[in-house]
Amino acid sequence: MTENLEKPSPERSQTRVFYTNLLHNRPNGAPANPTESSGNHRCELPANLLHKRGFGLTKKGGNYHVRKRVPTDLKATIGKGEVWQSLKTDSLRTARRRAFVALAEIEGRFEQLRGQLGMPFDPTLQRPSGDGPGGVPAYAVQDGGRTLPGMTPDPPVSVLTFGEVYDRFMSDPTQDWSPRTRLAYQTTQRLAVSIIGADLPMDQLNRAVCRDFLETLRYLPKQVSRAFPDLSPKEAAAKAKSEGLTNLISAANINIYLNKLCVVLNWAVREEFLVRNHLKGLRVADPVNQRDKRLPFEGWQLESIFSAPLYTGCLNEAEGYARRGDLRPRGTRFWIPLLGLWQGLRLNEACQLDVTDVRDLDGISCLVVTADSLVGSTDKRLKTSSSERIVPLHPFLHDLGFSDFVRCKADDGKTKLFDDINPGADGIRSTSFSKWFILFLGHAKAVKPKTSFHSFRHCFRDALRDARVDREVAMALGGWGSGSKSGFDVSDYYGRGYEPSFLREEIAKIDFHRVKALARLSSHR
Fold it and tell me: What does the buried/exposed string (b/e) look like for 81-102 if buried means 16 or more CB atoms within 10 Å of the residue's CB?
């Protein structure tokens, strides 16, 4: 390339044989050879960025860090491929100036380590050049929580334990959780702290620890505290594995625990309590297809449910709901299963309804499924943003007397439509009703694997298909997302949506005429 120096710019050779990575990464003592090719025609970074920032600087957590590759002869001892040192500044100008001292100190520690290992070393490089105690600079040199010999560890990484970090996550004021979400993180906390250990330093939380956590979950028995009250989760899992027990938590539940803990570790990385999340990518394969996790009720189950004494005549709606009698109470337990079947409401969507959530819109009686409240309720939650919707009241329920039921609640000055449902320990109203419904299915002899209250929504979706209701309309009525991450396609945000009168025509198309018990129920109005 030297022959180009005397030539005008247009006449200079444009052939590039001296690559940037050779300029910056010459082997020690090797002369530059203009004809030498690196074999790699691409730089890892554009040259302008290399020259602008320099020194292997990178920005993390608001501050600049200098990165230094660990020499090959020391990799086995240090255990990592590079070391990072925080320069304690967010100014690029200041970081570039401090980088000289930091890099010199790192090289000095490399030489000290070589001396300790009995390897050849350069004593000149061993002289301390820092401004901290004993010549150690004020910047802590670390590599994924591992400190080089003679360096001062970074207190936030080396001092905090796993239990302390999880506590900080739970008390973070920026978290806006529903009671159910907070309970899920608390449940995961108890399990993770028991298995991983509250006292484990965060710099020791590595991939092996995360894999051990996963392996314990794979053999964890269901309701482990009841099944093995005297054993820790880890001991119970070991016992279940050795004895070949099969009553274990599902793959779906395992992945829920992993997902929750992964969120915690991602937060720890952002807060610089952890260098990286070693749990990323650890999941178990779920052998059950999503559509098979819950099944719709079969015809015989619906017949059994709506032929039960609660719907044909019972002693009362309280303890005597499963015994034959002359009363036909039409209260909470009567209406909520019907709302699941005919309106497609999720259990908690029905249980948390305010009286004012049943209102006339353009002259159409509708159920308004929303987390907002006209009367100041603070306990309402929705599963997803797409769950918010209006669902016109089906004519079957209107004829059965649901509108009269709502009117009576309003006349009595009630705020909640189903005011006799008390919130559970998690603050969710559906918790207690769900337990009752399981007992109800048993009394009605309608139990079948993979069916639950949510099966009513599956029946509702099948009824929409049978009625040839357009898919987009069905998604709107059921509050289902369209498949994108947010639950909506871009086109869903255009326009005002469907008019209540149109939705009423569509929902009125669904019918369960094959269920004779429902026809008999209507005849006893």
Answer: eebbbbbebeeeeebbebbebb
